[in-house]
Amino acid sequence: MMFTINCAAASLYAKPDEKSTRVDEVLHGMEMEIELTDGDWLYVHTSYRYKGWLHRRHLAEKVSLSSHYVSVVAADVLAAPKVQAPLVECLTLGCTVQVISEEEPGWIQVVLADGRIGFIRAAFLKEFPGKITREALCQTAKLYLGSQYRWGGKSPLGIDCSGLCFMAYWLNGVSIYRDARIVEGFAIREISLAKAQMGDLVFFDGHVGMLIENGDMLHSSADGNGVRVDGFVGQWLDRLVAVGSAF
User: Fold this and answer.
1) What letter would DSSP give residue 147?
2) Fewer Cβ within 10 Å of end Cβ, the chain: N or C?
3) What is the CATH superfamily name and number for domain 134-245?
4) Is pLDDT larger for residue 223 or for residue 124?
């Protein structure tokens, strides 16, 4: 049985303890399965083959397939299609929902993972694309510019290097491995540097970034500056380990 979570984001931990290392962050609408339990803790694996411990309070049975994602930093799900309505949930960029109705002008009625119903402004949702493009990948990654670095994070509240690249591809309908390396069985395959273009990924020792226009690299840096743009050739080329592409 497939499950997801009942909030915007929940951490997966290395051990069944919130004081242990965060290994990943699962966003609303992402699927997972339970492998084993330990009291209030569940050992789960995600649809993109990442594993970790999740506290039971965040779990919800998957009620429907997600069709749209939140395309802004934060979007309120409200009980009625008006700004004065009670808050049902606040979702962040990358959270996914199932659309029920688009009959209210300017609003979309959605169902959350645990069955709750609410309304989101239509401008805050996008439908998953049918085809991936290099330009769309780069534009999606840029939505996280300025976000702080967070180990294991995948939201604009905090995101790490592989989380940033993962989300850029995920929101364009492609699942890649959520780590700073190329893994067989996922969309990214190794290519030569000579063939690299914008939207391709560049891998270093324990780090990954995305090539964008003008020979620059977009990445989430652990040095305190978070998601930023650096010159790839001038600053990072001599540290390169591999180049990966989904095209």
Assistant:
1) P
2) N
3) endopeptidase domain like (from Nostoc punctiforme) (3.90.1720.10)
4) 124
Please give the Cα distance from 19 to 37 (Å, whole number). 18
> Domain 3-61 maps to which CATH number in 3.40.1060.10, 3.40.50.2000, 1.10.10.350, 2.30.30.40?
2.30.30.40
Count of positions (residues) in the chain: 247
Q: Which residues are catalytic?
A: 161, 207, 219
Give 97-150 pLDDT, tens digit per residue: 999 999 999 999 999 988 899 999 999 999 998 889 999 999 999 999 999 999
- DSSP letters spanning 143-176: TTTTPPB-TT-EETTEE-HHHHHHHHHHTTT---
Q: What is the pTM of this model?
A: 0.94
Q: Which of 190, 200, 186, 188 is nearest to 138 (CA)?
A: 200
Angle CA 102–167–4, to nearest 5: 65
β-pairing verdict for 117-121 and 125-127: unpaired
